[in-house]
Amino acid sequence: MERVTKPRTVGEKTVKGINFFEAGDSALLHALQNPKVNIAGIRRADLLPDPGMFSPNRLSRQLRRLLDLGVIKRVTGTYRYYLTKAGRAATAAAEQLTQAVIVPSMI
Fold first, then answer.
1. pLDDT: which is higher, 30 or 73
2. Which domain CATH number covers 85?
3. Considering the chain, what percentage of its residues have pLDDT values greater than 90?
4. Per-residue model confidence (pLDDT) at position 85
5. Please, which residues bridge with residue 15 across strands?
6. What b-and-e string marks burial along 26-41, b requiring 16 or more CB atoms within 10 Å of the CB?
7. Which residue, 65, 61, 62, is CA-closest to 15?
8. CA atoms within a 13 Å half-sphere pointing along the CA-CB vector of 85
9. In the chain, how many domains are there?
10. pLDDT bucket at 50, cuts 50 / 70 / 90
């Protein structure tokens, strides 16, 4: 979790870490958790209707950020992406934490 939530320097730029409680990050990671994405990957165009809060340009920047953090990986020779092992573990842990601890404590 620490690896993907802390800012990281890539080249000369600093990449913001993931905030699992931000609506945009949460929606994008939830869309990437879909089981059929693990088989064939997902294209940016397939993500556009799902998290409707992103413009196409912003979605490209978000995908680049996830690539730089090591949360997603690109399928060689295509424009498809899938969650890495670390990405799957981090999103599953965040989902479990949210559903088991945070949501029940708010009720």
1. 73
2. 1.10.10.10
3. 34
4. 92
5. 8
6. bbbbeebeeeebeeeb
7. 65
8. 0
9. 1
10. low
